[in-house]
Amino acid sequence: MELTLAIAIGVLSASGVYLLLRPRTFQVIIGLSLVSYAVNLFILSMGRLRMDAAPILSGADADITNYADPVPQALVLTAIVIGFAMTALFLVVLLAARGLSGSDHVDGKGD
Amino acid sequence: MIADLPLWLSILVSAFVVLGALLTMAGCFGLVRLKSFYLRIHGPTMGTSMGGGLILLASAIYFTVTRERLVVHELVIFLFVTLTTPVTLMLLARATLFRDRVEGNEGVPKRPEKAETPASP
Amino acid sequence: MAAPGEKIRGAAWVTAVVAAILSLLSLALFPSIANGEVLISRIEWVPQLGLNLTLRLDGLAWLFAVLITCIGFLVVLYARYYMSPKDPIARFHALLLAFMGAMLGLVMSGNIIQLAIFWELTSLVSFLLIGYWYHRGDARDGARMALIITGTGGLALFVSMLVIGHIVGSYELDDVLASGSKIVESPLYPVALILFLLGAFTKSAQFPFQFWLPNAMTAPTPVSAYLHSATMVKAGVFILTRFWPVMHDHQLWFWIVTYTGLATLIFGAYTALFQRDLKGLLAYSTISHLGLITTLLGMGTPLAAVAAIFHIANHATFKASLFMAVGIIDHETGTRDVRKLSGLRKYLPFTATLAIIASAAMAGVPLLNGFLSKEMFFTETAEFDPNVFVNLSLPIGATLAGMLSVAYSIKFVHGVFFGPPPTELEKVPHEPPALMRRPIEILVLICLAVGIIPGITIAPYLAAAVHSVLGADTPYYSLSVWHGFNLPLIMSIIAMVGGAVIYVPYYRKLRDIDGVPLTRGLMGQRVFERILVTATNRWARHLVGAFGTQRLQPQIFVVIFLALAAGIAAGWARMGNLPLPQSFDPVLGLVWLLGGISALAAAQQAKFHRLASMILMGGAGLATCLTFAWFSAPDLALTQLLAEIATTVLILLGLRWLPKRSPVPESTPMAARLRRYRDVALAGLVGLGTALASYAIMTRSAPEGISDFFLANAYKEGGGTNVVNVMLVDFRGFDTMGEITVLGVVALTVFGLLRRFRPASDSAERPEQQRVLDDYAPGSSENVADDFLRIPALIMNWLFPVVVVVAIYMLMRGHDLPGGGFIAGIIMSLAFILQYLAGGTRWVEERLRILPLLWIGWGLLLALLTGIGAMVLGAPFLTSAFAYADIPLIGKVPMATALIFDLGVFALVVGATVLMLIALAHQSIRRPKVAGSNKPKQRAGTDKWN
Amino acid sequence: MSVTILEWSLFAAQIMLGLGMLATLYRMVVGPRAQDRILALDALYVVALLLLITLGIRTNSQVYFELAMLMGLLGFVGTVALAKFLMRGEVIE
Amino acid sequence: MRRLLPHPILAGFLLILWLVLQQSAGLGHILFGGVIAIAVSMAASAIIPERVVIRRPLKFIQLILVAGLDIIRSNLAVMSVLFHPRPNPTAGFIEMDLTLKNPFALAILAVILTATPGSAWLEYDRARSTVLIHVFDLVDEDEWVATVKKRYEALLLEIFQ
Amino acid sequence: MTGMNHIAILPILIPMAAAVFNLIGGDGRSNRRIIGINIGFSVLLLLVSILLVAVLAQSDTAAAAVYPLGNWPVPFGIVLVADRLAAVMVLTTSILSLAALIFASARWHSRGTNFFPLFHALVMGLNGAFLTGDLFNLFVFFELLLAASYGLALHGGGRNRVRAAMHYIVINLVASFLFLIGVALIYGTTGTLNMADIARAVPHIAADNVGLFEAGVAVLGIAFLIKAGSWPLHFWLPNTYSSAAPPVAALFAIMTKVGFYAILRLWTLVFANQTGPELAFGQNVLFVLGIATVAYGSVGALSSKALDRLASYLILVSAGTLLLAVAYNVPGVTTGALYYVVVATLAAGALFLLKDVIDQVLPAEAQILAVSLEFYGDEEDVIDEDQEVSRSFPAAATLLGWCFAIAALVMAGLPPLSGFLSKFAMLSAAFNAPSAPTAATWWITGALIISGLFVLIAMVRNGINIFWTSLPDDGGLALRPLEVGPIMVLLALCVLMAVFAGPALSYFADTAQFIHSPQNYIDLVLPKGETP
Ligand code: NA
Ligand code: NA
């Protein structure tokens, strides 16, 4: 399982980084999304992997060793929200840039 | 961990799950094997109808037994899937139809003439 | 409003009075100074760094102070008549006073850092004074050059002072002067010396830094007389003198200072000979004399130091008077060009007499002050030195320079005052008002007095200055006019005769010659300008281009590359061993076969098949979502799913405004392919790095950390069983508050940006599909799209209440089960979006008013108030309270303030998400207006949903 | 015994669903037209939903229910938007 | 009453949804769910102005059962085609005239036909009141149309018109 | 909890409340009342910041106020740590933001949508970043200040602005990913997020994980270096800053300082536990980057024709200077750097504002501006009637000239103003550090001095172009008091900082002493015996 997730993180970040290095704004925005998946999984993996241990307590006297680490989850949650906001922002900025320069190149160059 | 059920129940649940998965998988394979888009749209509906229904039913049975009370909220999922899948399919099919007509592809029904416009002579 | 003349008088009076008072004050202090006292006054400024404002007046400082104040006073008097009423007089006098203050501060500094500070101040004020007539290009250039050269030197001097302070252990001048041989014995001495000399030499215009001084002659003549002959340029030789006791005793000092001085002496004199501009001639003469002083200070003998101090005073008097004389000539004739001037003796008899006497002093004619110090100079150069080179070069160089200075002095006198009457002048010159001559008269009188009766006039003052520098080492020296017929006198005679011999045969040529023979190629100025213009402009731009970029891709590459390199450099060596995988779940493997291929395919398709790329990205996102679920993070899976959906809609809304995709090119150029390989390599390495790091962490046991606390206290202290949610709204609610503010801020930005959005011209039209569809159903009065969407839209409408109920459900349960404000917020906004998808913007907004900005505002306010509520009750911000209320009929209901906070989150998320999506959607209905006219648009269209 | 049956049948079902997902992936990658890809994504959502349900049974946990429900209820929003973009050239008119 | 409860059926459905989601039919849930259901259905009336009336509730249940059976049948039928080594269904388009006009009823018909594997609702033409349907394994066009009309359209007409 | 204890959180809450007010209370159009209230919030913030600094100045131990949010015990909850370092940064932010806000309220607020809430959000983000004692919370505030800065960078629209902002956004989004990866690795190896707790945990990291921890710190460092404006990670900066609206650019002057702050804070906290080759390596890397940044900034300043671009490069020069100071790792140098950060920020801010005022009085430039506004602008650019009207002032050119000169002196570090004193403080400490002077001493000396020279040349050239060639002679340039006032106040503060350099430097010396002995910080934040 660890290997699967590690490879997943690697593939996601590699494809995302490749896209971040591309010249078209659309490629960059897809790249941002892919990298943010990778980063979010990366953060999650820092709490070590647990199956069937969602940190939903069964009550006051729950045994705390039965649950996955909630800290990375809280961090990822914040990161997802911020990532969503930033994707939206970047999208609108790239649209504005496209409207002003006529091009969808990241440097506003002609095609 | 998975709970211990009476044998017949576990066989029933297992059968539902496996059959549902099989139907769903078959529908997905349809996506691969069928030759045209209009054929392919029939594939996924196996998963959304009976395939999904069986798995959801299995889940409902399983949790009703293990939780010792009526668990029916799988019904909600089934209802939602049943309501939403046709929306996508209808839109997709319309888009394809439209495009096929514009491109003049073969094997697609002619566009319906508007009532106001006189039929072609 | 005062008349211009009155203004001049007013400003001039103020300055004159101040200068006069200062002069008198300094003169009045002489008795104490003569007693060998050192007057010190200290104001603490930055005591912990050893930087205080210490005013320290000893003999040397006193001598300079007198020069500064007295000559300053005379210059002010002179300027009173020199300056034109059209000039901004107040600025002139203010700057002159500022300069006087800075210069006094410099010479009276009892702290070497303070000295460096005043040093730079004199440069700065000098800059403003040179650029006084800034409408003139040469004035601006001259000012800038002077500032840059002397400013650079000042910075070097500052560093030198730091080093000296480090060596001595104090920045107080007293400590430095009392440090004995500490400085010369320090290994840092060479550095300190070179930086020190850089400061001294630039300020005193020593070769090869001399060129700024002639260019500074664009300043008004009083400024030239004051700053650039009498005082500021003396600052360099002043500090050479000031630090002479503790720094001269080293070979390095001797060689550098002596020979720089000698080179300057000869070069200045030689160049002065070929000047057409009288001020240029005087400027090079000044350079030459400063070289003389420097040479003396370099030689390292106490007697030479005495001579140097003496010549400082002498030069100040005769050169200032000469400058003022030139000012009068300029003023009366309108030119300073030696070719146009001739025979002025007849028109300006008094001025001519004064100038001739001063020139004689400059040439070192006996019975004038210049002669005395020059004789002392010759004496020192003629001293025997065991080194043959030194033994020969010094006296020969000195004599040569003497010859040249005689020659240029004759050129000055002869060229201007003698010969036929001038022909090329625009007006007939007259003697200036007597008061304008008065300062010159005083200075010339001093030249004569010192030259004839030095023992009475200058001796006590010189003694005080000399003693303050040399202290116990003060040698015996004689100021008598006649020392007998000795080698120095022979040198003087050679110089006199030689100067005349040089001048007489060639005087026409010397008058008309253009430029300086031999050294024409050796123009420091040209080098400087080349460097300033080329280096600071073209080279700088090239450098900025070469080591920077305006393009985004290389920037990202560098960032990622460096991050990878930093990670590897820091982590690789102590990575530890990686254990083999323990378990493998084939189902998750299948999920990631899907996710991985989706990601790779999305990357591959993103350029030419945008929609495909988005769809594939959805696949990768779904795999991510499933993974969150797989590894016990249901809240994450929910959030991921919903954010993914919202992002998809968002990007699709934007896709409409991007250019049509270009067809896949048949071949890619080699460079592009190589670049792509390079990027693939970097991306691959990043992937490998993150995979390894995460694998390593996952396979090792977790450190004992903070997480147990949350599991143990979420229910007991936070009142919720969903630990992640309790963390979000309680344990780490502050993060969430920041996070929702981010979301709100981004929404506002998006909104603001879209209000002034202009589509590119090729996107402004309606999409092709719609245009074709309109043709397809001509004459239809109804909305074609509505008809086409009719049944799906109906289902979507009916889903609205269902989704809203689900949103409320997810909101309410979040504290105990997966859900919460953020998740519910996105669900709610998707309910709205669904309606926009089904009915279009106008249709929805005729029925619903969403007012997203208010949702955002109220959401933030709720979160804020929840936190502040705790403060009101005396607890820290965001302290939560919870209880189970027993409500009749309903039973136990959890009541946590954290839920109110979560409600704020919910409201904000709804507002922000809707605002962003709808702002984007609105561009489609704004489009026709934009395309239609250039007139400002109505606000109404956007305000309705605002 | 019954646990073993359940475990193996669930495992088999999950593998089948996983294979179904790969089949949808094939269409998403190969196309040939956008509508094929969108159709496949829509199918993928359903399969993922069912996978979650089986995961719930396998772990005897109801934690995933809401996730599955939201996939069913809102998963189509993305595909509808895609489909509408295909049909009308823009998502919201 | 009409203003308070513009969509009683919707409100009732929402209440049931709420209770199912809560997995509880306690009084608190019913009260709270009721408030939510009414409030939401009021809000929804802006989006859904037409009031839906089910005239024959029992027939509605019959419709669901019929549709369910058909779905099972066609699932098996389509699966058998799909597991054929070379699936080669005789597919075809059908243009079918509809008597049904009520949009809500049409939506239900569309959902049923599309949810059933083997048939897909493609395009409804309001002006001519026809619908274009794609059928996966079409043997006899007329018989297929007749079946749909009998099994679904008739029932829907009874329920909604 | 007494009212005084809440002082640590007020610098975050006041701007937040101001932002909320604008969303709910504002009616979309800014009138005098709204502007007044906004300035009122900003003044309140300034008062609180002054109080915070004063309180900390009173306490003789340089002790910090530790504020546990939600009343959760450290290190589990998020904690604010208002020590002297944070307080100084907050005060600088408050001063600069008030000046920029007043300046903006003359005209700029009406040039775009939602200026005020974005502005306050940026201030909130800055103050949060300075005050928080939690690494992930730092990320959140970084994102907040970045998000607001994105919005403000775009304020006013226009092609250059949008393109520059796009680059800025992408680079900083990548930086945010790096930040997250760094935080994740640190959490994965130490199990905690509180900065003091991380510092405490460093010696206890499992041997296998040390490499991963350091990799995390290194990646985090790169993220900070991007924000700090280090070469070669800063190429976005000159374009962004010079194309931003002037009051925005002025406030941006402190944004690179957040990167510096973060580096300094973590550097002293985390690296203090080490003495081995890692410290030397990190020090060397930082030092080289600092030199390169100073060099690039200086050369860039030389290459700049326009004043705003020049000012942007000056930001880089000061960024590099600060990196050098951190790398030097000596309390005395840090003292000077803290003094420098304040004056360099205020002066750079003033310079950006001054540029705008000059643009308005330069006849030719002003016309170009008007044309571009007409082209890109929206209906909102139509100047409101109730905005501040410019008046004619005698000696206006002289006034502007003086402002320029002071700013130039401070930025170039020339005597006698605070820029010089800060460089002197740094260099003096560098020379008098144990075992100095080393090669590093000469490098830092050379960098500071030569950059000062380059800045001088660039500023002189610009000043000559503006004041000696372009500006019409005195006798009534039209200026707005609301615009000139803030500039004068900022520069007057730079002068006052020079006059009162003694007390200021002893405050900073205590601050530096405190942050260079991290155990103080750890003991303060983590109650004894309660460490997990
Ligand atoms: Na669906
Ligand atoms: Na179907």
UniProtKB/TrEMBL annotation, chain A:
Keyword Membrane found: yes
Keyword annotations from UniProtKB, A to Z: Cell membrane, Membrane, Transmembrane, Transmembrane helix
Compartment list: Cell membrane
Residues spanning the signal sequence: none
Cross-referenced Gene3D superfamilies: 1.10.287.3510
GO cellular component: plasma membrane
Keyword Transferase: no
Chain ranges passing through the membrane: 26-44, 74-97
Recorded topology in the membrane: Multi-pass membrane protein
Domain of life from the UniProt record: Bacteria
InterPro entries for the chain: CPA3_antiporter_subunitC, NUOK/Mnh_C1-like
Family from the record: Belongs to the CPA3 antiporters (TC 2.A.63) subunit C family.
The protein's name in its UniProt record: Monovalent cation/H+ antiporter subunit C
Lineage start: Bacteria, Pseudomonadati, Pseudomonadota, Alphaproteobacteria, Hyphomicrobiales
TrEMBL record, chain B:
InterPro entries: PhaG_MnhG_YufB
Source superkingdom: Bacteria
Chain ranges passing through the membrane: 6-32, 44-63, 75-93
Protein name in the entry: Monovalent cation/H+ antiporter subunit G
Keyword annotations of the record: Membrane, Transmembrane, Transmembrane helix
UniProt source species: Devosia riboflavina
Pfam families: PhaG_MnhG_YufB
PANTHER family associated with the record: ANTIPORTER SUBUNIT MNHG2-RELATED (PTHR34703)
GO molecular function terms attached to this record: sodium:proton antiporter activity
Automatic annotation (TrEMBL), chain D:
Transmembrane segments: 6-26, 38-57, 63-87
UniProt keyword annotations, A-Z: Antiport, Cell membrane, Ion transport, Membrane, Transmembrane, Transmembrane helix, Transport
Molecular-function GO term, any one: sodium:proton antiporter activity
Source taxon at top rank: Bacteria
Any GO CC annotation of this UniProt entry: plasma membrane
Keyword flag Ion transport: yes
Broad class of where this protein is predominantly found: membrane
Topological category with respect to the lipid bilayer: Multi-pass membrane protein
Compartments reported by the entry: Cell membrane
One Pfam family hit: MrpF_PhaF
Keyword set includes Secreted: no
InterPro entries: MrpF/PhaF-like
NCBIfam families: PRK06161.1 (NF004812)
Family designation: Belongs to the CPA3 antiporters (TC 2.A.63) subunit F family.
Name of this protein: Monovalent cation/H+ antiporter subunit F
TrEMBL record, chain E:
Family to which this protein belongs: Belongs to the CPA3 antiporters (TC 2.A.63) subunit E family.
Keywords: Cell membrane, Membrane, Transmembrane, Transmembrane helix
Listed GO CC annotations: plasma membrane
Major location (coarse): membrane
Domain of life: Bacteria
Protein name per Swiss-Prot or TrEMBL: Monovalent cation/H+ antiporter subunit E
InterPro entries with a match to the protein in the record: Cation_antiport_E
Transmembrane segments: 5-21, 27-48, 60-83, 103-122
Matching PANTHER family: NA(+)/H(+) ANTIPORTER SUBUNIT E1, NA(+)_H(+) ANTIPORTER SUBUNIT E1
Compartment(s): Cell membrane
Topological type in the membrane: Multi-pass membrane protein
GO MF terms held by the record: monoatomic cation transmembrane transporter activity
